[in-house]
Specification:
The chain is an alpha+beta fold. The protein contains seven helices and 14 strands.
């Protein structure tokens, strides 16, 4: 069975090639996307598309996606997450670590989106059936604050805020080691790791990326660090701090000890989110304390008695 998915390029997207961009958005392999393009299953305003063509902000694509009958109708099911704030326009939620944000091939159930449409059925009316209300993302292993749109207009308005970089995003993390400078910015350009398509890396000629950081304390070779994102690249904090020789605790993908994969999460938490409400013009600021697992890790590592 086939469904049509609509995808638009925003300033938050950090890809050059069409096949790379769509592979990330659809969570398909790059080869599968290239085959879809060759067979004409990806369209954009009548243009002839090539895998190697550059994408630009505002580009819109229609993708014919083969899905199972069950996936055609987004399954509403109870999923554990906390609603921090809600009004008729938007929600702010506290996403637990381990929760995937939206369904994808091979993972159609038990995502944040499944839980959102269970609690807020009106989200099913939004045009992006696979990601209704989702205007930004957190990695599955990252916890903390996310904003979700409840109407089609609010979805577009919030996407514009993120695209224009008018959302203040702050994170707390535990990291191995201590950088030479305890406070500063990291501006390493990011792109796909040429040796591993599933990873990002600091790559010459990559997309400009800027991360602010401040080390709050260091003990027993573990640092607690506060981050501010000035750009919104995939895995940005994780890659940037790993490049300084300080991979985040639990992040075996980017240099933490392999056995830390058993921790089940990256110790990165979206603790503060601030933006001007598009409907009310009110400045909204939300804070979410670090999860209990941070405290437990600190105790077990002997950092605090």
């Amino acid at each position: 069975m086939t469904t049509i998915q609509k995808i638009e390029v925003t300033a938050e997207e950090n890809f050059d090639r069409l096949d790379v961009f769509l592979a990330e958005e659809l969570e398909f392999t790059r080869n599968r996307v290239q085959n879809l393009i060759k067979r004409g299953h990806i369209r954009s305003d009548g243009r002839k598309l090539k895998s190697s063509m550059n994408v630009q902000k505002g580009d819109k694509f229609l993708v014919d996606v083969q899905v199972s009958e069950n996936a055609m109708y987004l399954r509403a099911e109870p999923v554990d997450f906390e609603v921090v704030y809600e009004d008729e326009y938007l929600l702010v939620i506290n996403k637990p670590a381990g929760l995937v944000v939206h369904p994808s091939p091979g993972n159609w159930r038990n995502t944040l989106v499944n839980g959102l449409v269970y609690r807020y059925p009106e989200l099913k009316l939004l045009t992006n059936w696979l990601r209704p209300g989702i205007v930004h993302r957190l990695d599955s292993g990252t916890s903390g604050l996310m904003v979700v749109a409840r109407t089609q207009k609010m979805s577009k308005d919030l996407q514009k805020l993120f695209s224009d970089r008018e959302v203040d995003k702050n994170y707390i993390a535990l990291a191995h080691g201590k950088p030479k400078r305890l406070e500063g910015t990291i501006s390493g350009p990011l792109d796909r790791d040429p040796d591993n398509f599933l990873k990002m890396a600091v790559v010459l000629g990559g997309k400009s990326s800027l991360t602010g950081y401040k080390v709050l304390w260091t003990k027993n070779n573990i640092s607690m660090v506060k981050f501010k994102l000035f750009t919104g690249r995939t895995h940005q904090i994780r890659v940037h701090f790993s490049a300084l020789g300080c991979p985040l605790v639990g992040d075996a993908v980017y240099g933490a000890p392999k056995e830390e994969a058993e921790l089940g999460r990256v110790y990165l938490h979206s603790w503060r989110l601030s933006f001007v409400h598009p409907a009310t013009n009110e400045r909204m600021t939300f804070r979410q304390n670090i999860p209990e697992c941070f405290i437990e890790y600190i105790k077990q590592a002997g950092i605090r008695s």
